[in-house]
Design a protein that fits this description.
The chain has 371 residues and is of the alpha/beta class. The protein has 2 domains: 7-153, Rossmann fold (3-Layer(aba) Sandwich), CATH 3.40.50; 196-369, 60s Ribosomal Protein L30, Chain: A (2-Layer Sandwich), CATH 3.30.1330.90. It contains 11 helices and 13 strands. Strand 11 and strand 12 (329-335) form a beta hairpin. Helix 8 packs parallel to helix 9 (245-256). The termini are far apart. The mean pLDDT is 88. Its EC number is 1.1.1.95. GO terms for molecular function: NAD binding; phosphoglycerate dehydrogenase activity. Keywords: NAD, Oxidoreductase.
Length: 371
C-alpha cells in the first residue's frame, strides 16, 4: 500500500458523544478517563475497589461490569491480572457488548480470551482492537490475532517515551539522594524501618497478619468493594510496648495485593490504602498475664460486604477471621463465629457440612480421589 492514496481505508469514527468504559479505575484508568472527558466522551468505569468520590470528582460514573460492557462504544482495560480478571473478556461477555465496540488493552494480556476476541472480530461484534499486551509475549508471528486486519498491535510499549524515561531517571536519583539524607524513600519496595530485634520477635506475627488479610479478602464476594477493615490485637503488653505499624502494613498488603497489581510495604501501605478508599482502624485488647509474647491473637474484620462463605460472617454482619502464632507457626483460630485450629499453610478449603455421621469421611474421600 506504500505510495497509494487510499482515503477510504482510513475512515474512522468520532469520539465526541461516545461512551467509554474504563475497566479498572486505578491511577492509570483515572488518567485515561480525564483525557477522554476532554475529548467530549461520556465516561463510565467499573472497579469494585475504586472510591466513588474520586470518580465523581472527574465526572465519571461507577457502574457494574455488565452495565459497563453493554453500554460502551469503547472499552479500555486497566486492571491487573488476577484469578478474578483472568479471561474476563470472553465469548460470554463479548455477546453482551454493542455490535461495533472498539477495545483497547494496555493492561495485561490474560484479561482477554484471545481466541474469543478473534471470533468476536470475525462476527463483527468488535469492530477494532488495539493491543499492547498479550497472553504470550512476544506473540507468535502467525497468531490469528496479530495478523487480523482490524487489530492494531504494539510490543508492550507501556509508557515508553523519551519524557517518561527521563522522568523515571530523575525520580530514581531523587529517591537515592533522599535515602542518603536519611529521609523515608516513598518508592522503596522493601523498607521495614523497624529495629532488628523487634523485627525478629514480630516475624511470625507479620506472616500471620498478611495471611489473615489475604484470607479475609478472598472471602469477600466478587461484587463487593472492601472499604472498612477493623483489626484487633489481643496482647498482655502495654500499647506503648507494641508497635503495630508493620502488622497493619502486612494486613493491608494481604488485603490489597490479591486484588490489584500494587506491591505493598511498610512505607506505602497507608498511602495505598487511602488511594483505594480503604479505611483501616485498630483496636488494642489488653489481657492479664505475662507479656512474654508480643501478641495473643490478631482479628481482622471486613464490614459492609457480602461473603462467598456465609459462615465467615460474624453475628454483627462482618467477615471475621482470627489467628494466633503457635510454636512459631501462624494458625487460623476463628472464622465468623466458629472456633477452628488450622495451620495457615498451603491451601485451605472452607465448607459447611450437614451435621450427620459420616460427612467428614465422605468429604475426605472426595478430596483423596481428586488428589
Amino acid at each position: 500500500d506504500v505510495g497509494k492514496w487510499q482515503r477510504n481505508k482510513y475512515v474512522g469514527v468520532s469520539l465526541v458523544g461516545k461512551t467509554l468504559a474504563v475497566l479498572g479505575f486505578g491511577k492509570v484508568g483515572s488518567e485515561v478517563a480525564r483525557r477522554a472527558k476532554g475529548l467530549g466522551m461520556h465516561v463510565i468505569a467499573h472497579d469494585p475497589y475504586a472510591p466513588a468520590d474520586r470518580a465523581r470528582a472527574i465526572g465519571v460514573e461507577l457502574v457494574s461490569f455488565d452495565e459497563a460492557i453493554a453500554t460502551a462504544d469503547f472499552i479500555s482495560l486497566h486492571m491487573p491480572l488476577t484469578p478474578a480478571t483472568n479471561k474476563m473478556l470472553n465469548d460470554e461477555t463479548f455477546a453482551k457488548m454493542k455490535k461495533g465496540v472498539r477495545i483497547v488493552n494496555v493492561a495485561r494480556g490474560g484479561v482477554i480470551d484471545e481466541e474469543a476476541l478473534v471470533r468476536a472480530l470475525d462476527a463483527g461484534i468488535v469492530a477494532q482492537a488495539a493491543l499492547d499486551v498479550f497472553s504470550e509475549e512476544p506473540p507468535k508471528q502467525d497468531s490469528k490475532l496479530v495478523q487480523h486486519e482490524r487489530v492494531t498491535v504494539t510490543p508492550h510499549l507501556g509508557a515508553s517515551t523519551m519524557e517518561a524515561q527521563e522522568g523515571v531517571a530523575i525520580e530514581i536519583a531523587e529517591a537515592v539522594v533522599g535515602a542518603l539524607k536519611g529521609e523515608l524513600a516513598a518508592t522503596a519496595v522493601n523498607a521495614p524501618m523497624v529495629p532488628a530485634e523487634v523485627l525478629t520477635e514480630l516475624k511470625p506475627y507479620v506472616e500471620l497478619a498478611e495471611k489473615l488479610g489475604r484470607l479475609a479478602v478472598q472471602l469477600v464476594a466478587g461484587g463487593s468493594g472492601v472499604k472498612t477493615v477493623k483489626v484487633s490485637y489481643a496482647s498482655s503488653r502495654a500499647p506503648d510496648d507494641l508497635d503495630t505499624r508493620l502488622l497493619r502494613a502486612m494486613i493491608t498488603k494481604g488485603i490489597i495485593e490479591p486484588i490489584s497489581s500494587v506491591f505493598v510495604n511498610l512505607v506505602n501501605a497507608d498511602y495505598t490504602a487511602k488511594q483505594r478508599g480503604l479505611r483501616i482502624t485498630e483496636e488494642r485488647i489488653l489481657l492479664d498475664g505475662s507479656p512474654e509474647s508480643p501478641l495473643e491473637s490478631i482479628q481482622v474484620q471486613i464490614a459492609n460486604v457480602e461473603s462467598k462463605f456465609a459462615s465467615a460472617m460474624s453475628e454483627s454482619g462482618e467477615i471475621k477471621v482470627e489467628g494466633r502464632v503457635k510454636d512459631g507457626i501462624p494458625h487460623l483460630t476463628k472464622v465468623g463465629s466458629f472456633e477452628v485450629d488450622v495451620s495457615l499453610e498451603g491451601s485451605i478449603i472452607l465448607c459447611r457440612q450437614v451435621d450427620q455421621p459420616g460427612m467428614i469421611g465422605t468429604v475426605g474421600s472426595i478430596l483423596g480421589e481428586e488428589n
